[in-house]
Design brief:
The chain is built from nine helices and two strands. By secondary structure, the chain is mainly α.
């Protein structure tokens, strides 16, 4: 899901599809050659109806900056624990330290939205570390629903380590890589 949103946000910096704003360039021009697609409008074509390199550049910079600023605002204001990759904190938690709220549902939501916005804006951010953190958040949120894991910190760390392995597998597209 994050990859789909990231791809759409990256294309939104360059233009919009006249068939539907929700389509990225690849799906807008599905049956046509990339250069000959009339349905994909660059921002200068959509806003002023002509070709203007300055308008195209301004739209690219403005949308990228807006996405990055929105990401920073959401993470700083609503979930400061979602900042960064989270790998160091995950290693500390697996070692026995307790960081309250680091693997909660709200952190998961803000990490997901923030990661999509940061990557879509063009910031040099890797998805691998945050994928491990999000996997651990999902494992923790699910494990909290079972008293067997809620009562035992050792069992909870087992779930978190399995979730971290799943996050590694998802991040690199290698199911055996998580093992």
């Amino acid at each position: 899901m994050i990859s789909i949103v990231t791809e759409w946000l990256s294309d939104a910096k360059q233009g919009v599809c006249s068939r539907g704003w929700w389509l990225n360039q690849k799906f807008c021009c599905w049956e046509e050659a990339d250069e000959a697609c009339a349905a994909w409008l660059t921002w200068d074509q959509a806003l002023v109806g002509g070709s203007s390199g300055f308008i195209r550049w301004l739209a690219f910079v403005t949308t990228g900056t807006a996405m990055a600023a929105t990401c920073a605002f959401l993470v700083r204001g609503y979930a400061p624990l979602a900042a960064g990759s989270g790998l160091g904190e995950i290693k500390a938690i697996l070692g026995g330290f307790v960081i309250r709220g680091f693997m909660g549902g709200w952190t998961l939501v803000m990490k997901s939205v923030g990661l999509a916005l940061a990557v879509g804006s063009g910031l040099s951010v890797g998805k691998e570390g945050p994928a491990v953190h999000m996997g651990c958040c999902i494992g923790n949120v699910v494990a909290r629903n079972f008293s067997k894991y809620r009562r035992s910190a050792a069992r909870q760390r087992e779930v978190i380590s399995a979730a971290a392995a799943a996050g590694v597998a998802v991040a690199f597209g290698a199911p055996i890589g998580g093992v």
